């Protein structure tokens, strides 16, 4: 228990008001500028709505050299991420950026690219990224003007173009691509949608996984040693039903009806403190909808409680858009099933929450609004201590309107858009008559939506014949 308790405090939350002095670890290390000993300070912390990070700061008292960087301390994201931001106003230059070692930054208008792993991870701004490039190009210019005057002249011209970007003589596009998925670009209009930024996720290639140190089991498996062979023989001698972790259910021993009424439990690790805990899972049927899988996790170490809902069926043929008019307390009691791919939009508040923000959950309208408020508080708390007065005033006004809506003093229109068609809102009319406060629209998904869901390349019919044809072509080529 002592080990678990210590582990939960490894990454304390970044909260300046409650913890003004976070403990930093100081390590004596060599300065790469003068080769004397300097001091490196390490701070392990957790940025709200982001993840665990390790902030490192180096300073040398002998030559005055300073350096700082940031590295992710949590797990690698399952997908890579790409931010494409249009920089139009001085406010866009002040956007805060969290970039990792694997971030590739590109400025389209100058055809300029900062390759991945060429710079250390850091917390900076768009203007700070340009300043760092200018400093890096300008540091060897005095020597370059003597030895290579033509190259120095070209670099001076390029630096001048970078300075013009800072002065915003014309808008430009900044693209940040991170194969680790551990980067972040601030939305200055939060909680409203960032119209100047496009966020997309992508599957990593085999080579990109190798750059991150991710290898498949068959790629790292060596030839089995004699001890491994003997161990495998011993394992084979044990009956599968006795040795296997997941034992098969004998035919007729557990009918489907009993499985739906049973709560299954399996061990997992807490996403907050990484302590061992149990996750309960139950298959249930929502009336007038479909089967769903409800999973709930309770951590005895840190008290974290989470619930998640997965649709029991596959992706529907059509997407669904559900509009709910919240007129009073009676609408707060509506049951809501929100899938992971469902985005939310509140028209009166001009607030939009992305598909992956709240995850999949089975709750009510009131619970959905409350969860959205809690997550927005965490996301805006990331840089709350350094926000300008205008941002604080806007967020205070928004939270005041949202609190009034949760209290039932303000009518709302909630729009749920789910391209998979796996979201649901309860109708208050059980007699089959139309619910005037509920509007359901089904639509055909676009090509981009199918591409994001992985449906364009999915082949469910005659796929075995295609594999046979490929094998035959390989034999002919051989």
What does this structure look like?
- It is a single chain.
- The chain is of the alpha+beta class and about 475 residues long.
- The protein has four domains: about 25-70, ZPR1, zinc finger domain (N-terminal domain of TfIIb); about 80-210, ZPR1, A/B domain (Jelly Rolls, Sandwich), CATH 2.60.120.1040; about 260-310, N-terminal domain of TfIIb (Single Sheet), CATH 2.20.25; about 320-455, ZPR1, A/B domain (Jelly Rolls, Sandwich), CATH 2.60.120.1040.
- It has 15 helices and 24 strands.
- The chain has helices spanning about 1-10, 90-95, 125-140, 140-145, 150-165, 205-210, 215-220, 225-235, 240-245, 255-260, 330, 365-380, 390-405, 445-455, 465-475, and strands at about 25-30, 35-45, 50-60, 65-70, 80-85, 95-100, 105, 110-115, 120-125, 170-180, 185, 195-200, 265-270, 275-285, 290-300, 305-310, 320-325, 335-340, 345, 350-355, 360-365, 410-420, 425, 440-445.
- The strands form six sheets. The protein has a five-stranded antiparallel beta sheet with strand order 8-7-10-5-12.
- The longest helix is centred in the N-terminal third of the chain and has 18 residues, at about 150-165.
- The protein is globular, with a radius of gyration of 27 Å.
């Amino acid at each position: 228990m002592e080990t678990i308790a210590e582990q939960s405090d490894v990454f304390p939350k970044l909260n300046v008001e409650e913890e003004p002095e976070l403990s930093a670890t100081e390590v004596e290390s060599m300065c790469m500028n003068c080769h004397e000993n300097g001091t490196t300070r390490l701070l392990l912390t957790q940025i709200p709505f982001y993840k665990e990070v390790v902030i490192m700061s180096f300073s040398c008292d002998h030559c005055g050299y300073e350096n700082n960087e940031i590295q992710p301390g949590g797990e690698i994201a399952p997908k890579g991420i790409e931010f494409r931001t249009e920089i139009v106003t001085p406010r866009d230059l002040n956007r805060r950026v969290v970039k990792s070692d694997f971030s590739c930054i590109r400025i389209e208008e100058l055809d300029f690219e900062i390759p991945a792993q060429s710079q250390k991870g850091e917390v900076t701004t768009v203007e700070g990224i340009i300043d760092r490039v200018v400093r890096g190009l300008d540091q060897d210019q005095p020597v370059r003007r003597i030895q290579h005057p033509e190259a120095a002249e070209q670099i001076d011209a390029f630096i001048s173009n970078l300075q013009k970007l800072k002065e915003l003589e014309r808008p430009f596009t900044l693209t940040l691509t991170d194969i680790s998925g551990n980067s972040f670009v601030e939305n200055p209009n939060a909680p409203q949608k960032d119209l100047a930024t496009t966020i997309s996720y992508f599957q990593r290639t085999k080579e990109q996984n190798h750059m991150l140190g991710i290898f498949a089991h068959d790629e790292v498996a060596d030839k089995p040693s004699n001890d491994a062979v003997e161990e495998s023989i011993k394992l084979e001698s044990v009956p599968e039903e006795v040795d296997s972790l997941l034992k098969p259910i004998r035919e007729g021993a557990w009918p489907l009806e009993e499985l739906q009424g049973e709560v299954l439990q399996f061990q997992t690790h807490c996403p907050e403190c990484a302590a061992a805990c149990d996750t309960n899972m139950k298959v249930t049927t929502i009336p007038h909808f479909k089967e769903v899988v409800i999973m709930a996790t309770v951590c005895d170490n840190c008290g974290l409680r989470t619930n998640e809902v997965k649709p029991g069926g596959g992706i529907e043929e059509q997407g669904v858009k559900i509009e709910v008019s919240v007129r009073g307390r009676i609408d707060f009691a509506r049951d809501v099933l929100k899938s992971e791919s469902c985005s939310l939009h509140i028209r009166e508040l001009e607030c939009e929450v992305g598909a992956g923000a709240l995850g999949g959950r089975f709750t009510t309208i009131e619970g959905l609004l409350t969860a959205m408020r809690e997550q927005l508080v965490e996301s805006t708390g990331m840089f709350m201590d350094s926000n300008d007065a205008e941002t604080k005033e806007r967020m205070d006004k928004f939270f005041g309107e949202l609190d009034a809506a949760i209290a039932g003093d303000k009518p709302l229109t909630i729009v749920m858009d789910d391209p998979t068609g796996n979201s649901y809102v309860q109708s208050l009319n059980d007699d089959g008559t139309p619910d005037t406060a509920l509007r359901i629209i089904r639509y055909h998904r676009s090509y981009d939506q199918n591409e994001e869901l992985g449906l364009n390349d999915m082949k469910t019919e005659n796929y075995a014949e295609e594999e046979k044809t490929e094998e035959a072509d390989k034999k002919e080529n051989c």
